[in-house]
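re: ur question from the group chat, yeah i did fold both. here u go
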Amino acid sequence: MKALLIKITIGFIALLSSVKAHSQENHKTCGTILTEESQQLIADHLISPHRVRISSDPMRLAIKAHIIRKSDGTGGLSESQLTSALEKVNNFYGNAGLEFFLFGDIDYVDNDEFYDFNSDSEQALANERDVPNTINIYFANTVTSGSDPLCGYAYFPGNPDRILMDNSCTVNGTTLSHEIGHYLTLYHTHGKTNNGTTDELVDGSNCETAGDDVCDTPADPNLTGKVNSNCQYTGNLRDTNGDLYQPNTENVMSYAPQDCRRIFSTGQYSRAFSGYMSFRSYLNQKNYAADFGISQSIACAGEEVELTNMSLGNYESIEWRLPEASVASTTDENPRITYSSPGTYDVELTINGDDGGTDIKLLENAVKIIPQPSSPDASLEMGFEMEEIDEASLHSPGDTFSFSIENAGSESEQSFSMQFHGYENRNAVDYYLLSPLENPGEMDYVISFDYAFTYFSDGTSERIDEINILSKGCGPQKQVWSANGKTDATANAKSQSFVPKPAEWNHVETYVPFDPESNFVQLFIEAKNSNGNNFYIDNLQISYTSQIVIRSIAVTAEQCAGDQNGVIEVDASFNGNEISYSLDGENYQSSGLFEGLSAGDYEVFVKSGNDIISESVSVNVISQKPAKPSIIFSNNELRLLASAFEIEWYHNEVLIDDSGATKIPFAGNGDYYVIVRNKSGCENISDVFTVLGSEMPVSSVSVYPNPASEKIIIETVQGLEISIYDLTGRIFVEASIIKGITELSLNDMNEGVYLVRIISEDGIETKKIVIDH
């Protein structure tokens, strides 16, 4: 997802007659975009700055610095430059009761691909590097969006904790503070868009809802090109009341030249603090943070649960507190524990920082131990026509769940729902346990249900929720079904709370995997919250099936077009009966594995006795092969009429050059060919090109007329081999001629420049001709 980008000019392009000559960064833009969704989120949930008192004891905000350097480790922002930039930020925001600090060590990204950064590469750069609960700031040599140079860009609330900065703008004294202002809900002083002038009136009568929504910043008509070298406003624009604008040209959030920007207003400081309290108070306040993962949150008595220390920052030691577990406390990094009795149990991790302090993460009800059922059901049918959910069926580590029964069903009046919209506990994972089922033996369970689901906005990729239906006995859990709020949406994105209409339900039918060593099946719904939008499920049915079940079809793509290395692997069952598989409905085999496939669409047939079912699948191709290369010989050089990621030249079956050169010097008579590869490793090979001797004029040969129209005449006193080809190497004419005069037709050739290659006993020569019909 692209950040919230209004293309703005932070240090604007100077008008030669009136504006100071500023440094290079003033020609770059701020790339922060304010989406409608973010604006609405801020309007709905920003605590009024009038109701918030700035703390005298500053709130600490963790910054994770990611410095991008070249692959060899050179270049990039220096540590002293980073320290100086952070000091300037704190000089500003100390007045807002906020203090920024570096969290842990600097993350150096040594990669030429990101050194001059384009916003198209943001996901590849940041997805695996972002540190949770910190402001992840990436410092690049340059930053662009498409072809537009940027000073940097940030994200408003509801989006990633991420800022991208151009190094030259980082050190200019104000741009980093400007982008952090956006992160803390500050708008540009001219307002929420860059289209035309501001909507704020000079008299301030609409200041709380127009312009930057801050009343002590005067109405600003957008200062790009309207401030002279003395930082004086030179415009003469008027508002809709006819009043002349009198903007402040020194405000950091304005579009005044960088040299002029040096202040925030009191109201902006209050709004920044309010923005922190409303949306960013989850940020780490220490240089270390306790965190952990749990291998499975639902388990049987005696079943092993693994805990993983995922703490971040600078800490020296850890200690786990595990009440009623097989190990009540330990300093092991990743302990394995069991519980002997059904119930829910807390997990607590304490880390001891290098500054003598501690950080504690306590997850209440972190693990649920389920009992062995005495008489599990043979089937299950749920229409969710109930007043409330049985709390015994809920498992919510941290007690944060938002499951509910809602008055919106696919066919009936009610359904079971996870209300993600407005669910404050972002990243929480909650569970709803269905009634346990008996061991199906050699039978298979099939689950069917209706669901409705959507996401918050096309403008933000961060607010995408996830629903999983999982199955387990007293062994490893297995996935039955999974849905992503965006890719599996049944309705268009909605910023308001989603309530499905009748046409916004989908039906699902799938197989329930089962651990044969367990005596029961426990299914549960897992909900992963990202503050997106609501999920509904209705008409859930689970029962034995007397039909063939295709449990899964795994497809491996063909690596390169034409390689025939695609794979289809089918797993099916039919009440323990023998089954066979086919891709054409006629030729069956006992194995569901089909190898050596080309890309294309296939029909998978599964047969048992007289019962046959089929399912369509596609084998994709990862990469096309590069075009077949061609070689020409001219001026004692062999040239490849193409370019490629990798190029290998061979002479008489021996590799002679793999430097990637598109031409090589003549290496002697014999057979030449070239292999080319693209970035995916797919290759193609040229035809063998035979050189009988180094190129030199062939005696007593004439080629005319030139330009030629319908034919060309070859006049020679000896036998020749003739080929005519275009500048891409495509051959149009090949002929063996004897001495005398020979006419060759050109009617099948388009107008243009061609090469005539002449091979005789005494040499090789290439002549250029022009065809002009």
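okk and heres the other one u asked abt
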Amino acid sequence: MAVELCLLLLLLCGSTISEVQPIYKPPPGTLDFGFVPAKTYDTGAYHEPGPIGILFKIVHSFLYLVQPNSFPQDLIRKLAQQKFGNTQGDYQKAIYYEIGFIVTAALGLLFILLLPLVGLCFCMCRCCDNCGGEMHQRQKKNADCQRSCFATFLFVASLIISVGVLCAYAANQHLTNQVRGAKKLVNSNFKDLKIFLNDTPAQIDYLVGQYNTTKDKALSELNNVGPLLGSRVQEQLGKEVHPALDAALTMAGVKVERAIKAIRETKEALENVSVSVEVLQEGTERLHANLTDVKMHLNNTLGDSACSAAQAASTCNIIRNSLNQLNINANFSGLPGVSAQLAKVNDVLKIDLSSLVQKGYAAFNDTPDLVVNQTRNILSAVPYIKNVLESIGSNITTFTKALPVQKILADLMVSLTQSEAYVQDYFPVVEQYDFYRWLGCLILCCMVVLILVFYYLGLLCGTCGYDKHASPTTRGCISNTGGNFLMAGVGFSFLFSWVLMIVVVLTFVAGGNVEKLVCEPFEDKTLFKVLDTPYLLNQHWKNYLSGILFKNPDINLTFEKVYSDCKENKGIYTSLHLEHMFNIDEFLNISMYTEDVALKIEHIQINLSKIILLDEIGKENLLDFSSSGIEGINFAAYLTEINKSVTKVDLLSFANDLEARADQLPKGALENALKGHANSIRMIHNQQVVPLEQAMKYVKARSTLNQSIRLLKRTSSELMVKVKNVISAVNAAQLLINNNASLVIVQETKKYMDTIVGYFEQYVEWVKESIAMEVAACKPIANVIDTAVDIFLCSYITDSVNTFWFGLGSSSIFLIPAIIFAVKLSKYYRRMDTEDVYDDSVEQW
């Protein structure tokens, strides 16, 4: 039986042996391996920008209008393979893809070139007293309307410029805030990576250690093979044996208890019947004698000569004819006795059917003990099997120590520590340069703010200081100052706008392309598909990642699959397909032990022929119990006599009639004699008939006698059929034990072994699942990628830069209409040197 345990070993490795496959494989008992120790990762690789996110979405929509084309995968692949330009249409495709950026950038360059030139020409023109430079204003009737319109337009343009510069400032500040907070995010990623590296050895040790749980469970069941296997055999045989015994017990329980109750009631009733019949027989015999005596005396009286008289003859004849009614009706003398039935019932009550059935149960319940006694050879093999299991555990431990996991993790930890130190050293440098960037962007915003200050001051002074009654040459100082502020704003607009547009164009081209070529394809994983292009990063390798890791570029390992698996926090073994480096199926394979197990498992022999469910004496007692003997009683004769009246006629009625007819006779001795006979009949009724009728009522009051007899009669017929069925079922169950037990034992033994083997299969599956999903869960790797690309590059930098140029660019563009409206409006605020009267002609300047 040492072999049986070896079988459990063989199946532990997942191997299958067709020769010893069980007929039915029950699900094994569930083992609790606990949870693989794992710490929670701190990094949440998700960035919520807050309120400024609305601006980010607006910028994304604007970029979609500028560049609605899909990601140019083919062009990027050719560019990476240095094949761009080999095909004639490559440049055309690139221009088509970038046409939105090209046109927008061209307009920006045009702005950069023309605005300073226009400003220079405008300045020279005004110096020549043209273009509004002449301090002379021709007054017109709609001057107030024009002034109001110019002021309104300039104010609206200034508001739009203000919104734009606020957006630019918010984006600038947001970028600085995120850069300052990036250190915490980076430290969190390094912490998760360290947890990832430090926890992996402990997780592997935990997996190896749980082999003892499986081994201990298997040895525990092998040490108890007798009771456990015996219970299985008993359970399987019990599918046939228990119904037979249950049927007998049910009969012995419910049906028999009812029958015994009825028999006891019937016994009591029969005893009462026996006594009552004796009383009735004695009473009816005495009544019959008295009635015969009365009839004789009446006949003598009616034979008197007085009855021959004409007046009495008719009455006497009537009385004489009624004398036949003076006789008993119920005759109990002919009823059969019930003493034999009482004796049979007493014998039936002495049979204990329940004990007969319980003996069968006891014999069948001894099955585990029989199996225990006959499986001691298995117990003798347990030490050998234990040694085999211990050797397997040692092999597992040796194999895990032979893996280069510790060395790999140690090298990675060194590299990680160096990288962390490098990043920490350069964080102050990054923050310093970010300060310079923030300061430069702030200066650009201040340029726009300076222009806005002049415009707002000009509108404030001009509007507040304007006197509509004053002529152009007599305008107040405040109004004149407002006009000068407006012209100062125009001057600074020409000085700063082209500088602002240079920054806008550069950041627009850079930030817009990063958003379209990096951030968007990273979000929908198109970028990974490009990276997974065969022979892209290395012209000799089909799959770059597997070439780097395994030196085998033919293994299908893609960036997208690794990233997706790590994103789902799967184990590094599954994500990187490390089965190509070391295969855990081979590590868990112990098929070397299976052949011996397959041969020795067939030698189990258990004999259950000693189990006797119901012996011959028990069967005879069952048959005896089924016959109570009550069915031999002549129930009809009893019921017929019981239902009869005591006499054929009611003696009181007869006596009354006799006395009434005596009154019809002439007064004399005949009348008195008949009345005397009537009194004698009444006396007989009161002294003999009434007690007999009460005795009859006593019998009728025992109506349960009738019910008990009928119940016993019906139960007796049912018992006969049921006893025969029970005996047949018990015989079939006994035949199953005697003839088929060996097959059941073999089958149950295989099932038992499969259950034990199932523990090892559970262990193997649990190890595989844990390694695939829990051990070295690579979520930190995906978090690092998400942090670097999605959060830091795209959310922190690109979105902020794009929002900055969007706000600064909109402000720069609206400087043009602001210049026009400011120049026009300043003419109405500044103090003129000369003036004209009203002139409806159009002013030329």
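fwiw on the second one: The longest helix spans residues 225-302. Confidence is low (pLDDT under 50) at residues 1-28, 593-601, 838-845. idk if thats what u expected
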